[in-house]
Amino acid sequence: MLPGVIINIENGALGGAPGTSDGITGMMLSGVAVASQIALNEPKQIFSLAGAVALGLDEAYDTANSVDVYKQIKSFYDVAGTGKELWFMLVAQTVSLADMLDVTEAANAVALLDAADGKIRVLAVSRVADGGYTPTILDGLDSDVYAAVTTGQALAESFAAQIKPLRVVIGAREWSGAAGDLADLHQRTDNRVAISLTGHSSSNKNADVGVMLGRLAAIPVQRNIGRVKDGDLGILQAYLTDGETTESKETAWASIYDKGFVFVRRYVGKSGYYFVDDLTATALTDDFCTLSKGRVIDKAFTLTYATYINEVNDEVLINTDGTLSAAYVKSLQAAIENVLNQAMTAKNEISAAKCSIDETQNILATNNLVVSIRVTPVGYSKEIEINLGFNNPLNN
Q: Are residues 219 and 357 in the same domain?
C-alpha cells in the first residue's frame, strides 16, 4: 500500500432519534361509493384535496348524495395545507358513529387504522345519516354521539396496547342549541376522546371535524389547537351544530366550555375564529384532559418503545452483590434520555425527560427490568391575569 493517510468515516455515533407519525391523521365519513374509484369501507391515502377530487369526491358529489365528504376534506386541507398525509374511509350512511369506532367491527375503523399500519395518531368521525334516520336526542345531542365516546375510548385503548397510540375526535350531531342540555363530559373518564360542536353552516347540523383535524395535523404534539399565535382558522363564518352562528351563543360559551366540548370562538379586537381549547371527555384532574397532553405522552410512548425494544432478551451484567451493573444502568438511562431530549425537548414539545432505574432490583429472580421515565410537559397560559392601573410618580 502506498504511504499516505487513510480516514474511515464512522456512522452511528450521534444516536439520532427514531421518526414518529405525529401529524398523520384519519377520517371516517358517511358517503356513497364511486364506481371504479372508491368503494365503501375502502381505506384511501391522499396528500391533497386534489387527491379526493381525483376519486370523484368533489363538490357535486356532496350535493348529489346529500353528504359532506368533499366539505370535510376541504376543511382539513384548508387548515393543514397541501402535502399532509390523510387516511380516510367512506361508510354507509346507515352506519352509526358508535359502530364506526367499534373495535369489534373489523370493516370500519379497525380496517382504516390497520391499512395505515398504525401510523394514524388522531382519527375523526362524522356521520350524515340517510333521510330515514330519526335521531334520539339525549343530553342535547344525537345519543349516538355519546355512545361513540365509549366505543372510541375502547378502540383507542386497544390500539395503544398494540403500541399504536390513538386519539379520537367525534363530530357532535343535532345539538339542541341549549348549553344546559349538554352532558358534563368532565364526569367521564374517556381521556382519548374529544367532541367537537363546530358546525359547517346554518343548514348542516353535523360537525366540521375536518377543520379540527387539519389544525391537529399542522401543529406539533404539545401545541394547543387554540393557540392564538398560530393565527385564525381562515373561516369566514363559524357555526355550531345547532345551525346557529358561534357569535349567537357568546353568552353560553363559558357554559359549553365548562361541559368539556370543543368549539370555535372570536376574540375582541382580532379577526377570524379560534378553537377555545382541546379538551377531552374526562375530569380536569386527569393528566390527559387535553388532546395536546395526550399527544405528548403518545409520542414519548412511541419513542420509548422504539428505544427499549432492542433490549428485550439481552444479557444483563450483575455485580457480585446481585445488583445491576452501574455501567449497564447508565447506558439504558442515557439511551432514552438522549432520544427524548433530541426528539422532544429540543423541539420544545416537553420541558425535560428523566429516566431512573433501581440498581438493587432482583432481576436474577424476576427476569423483569423496571424502568421509570418521567416527562415534564410544557405549561399553557390559558388564562392571563393582569393588574392594570394608573401611576402617579409624585406618590412614589
A: no
Mean pLDDT, residues 272-284 taken together: 97
Q: Is residue 396 part of a domain?
A: no
* pLDDT (tens digit per residue) in 190-221: 999 999 999 988 888 899 999 999 999 999 99
For 63, phi then psi, to 5°, come to -65, -45
Query: 220 and 346: one domain?
Result: no
Element containing residue 207 per DSSP (H, E): strand 204-207
pLDDT digits (tens, 9 = 90+) for 113-128: 999 999 999 999 999 9
Residue 132 covered by a domain: yes
The CA distance from 171 to 94, in Å, is: 16
pLDDT greater than 50 at residue 387: yes
pLDDT of 2: 61
Closest CA to 300 of 228, 221, 242: 221
Output the pLDDT for position 13.
47
Question: How does residue 6 score in pLDDT terms, banded at 50, 70 and 90?
Answer: low
- In this predicted structure, what is the pLDDT of residue 12? 46
Short-list 148, 134, 223, 140, CA closest to 180: 140
C-alpha cell at 249: 351563543
Q: Which domain holds residue 329?
A: 313-376
The answer to the question of residue 15 being in a domain is: no
317 and 288 part of one domain: no
Residue 100 sits in the same domain as residue 213? yes
CA angle 269, 272, 275 (to 5 degrees): 105
pTM attached to this predicted model: 0.92
Instruction: Kindly indicate the confidence band of residue 19, based on its pLDDT and cuts at 50, 70 and 90.
Output: low
The total number of structural domains that make up the chain = 2
The answer to whether 296 touches 379, Cβ cutoff 8 Å, is no
What is each CA distance from 298 to 124, 206, 256, in whole angstroms? 17, 29, 27
- Could you tell me if residue 9 is inside a domain? no
Collect all residues with Cβ–Cβ distance below 8 Å to 5 and sequence separation of at least 6. none
Residue pair 192/153 in contact (Cβ under 8 Å)? The answer is yes
For residues 167 and 207, membership in a common domain is answered with yes
Using CA atoms, how far residue 285 sits from 150, 188, 227, 383, in Å, is 20, 12, 21, 17
- 275 membership: H or E segment, kind and range: strand 274-275
Q: Which of 269, 295, 321 is the last residue of a domain?
A: 295
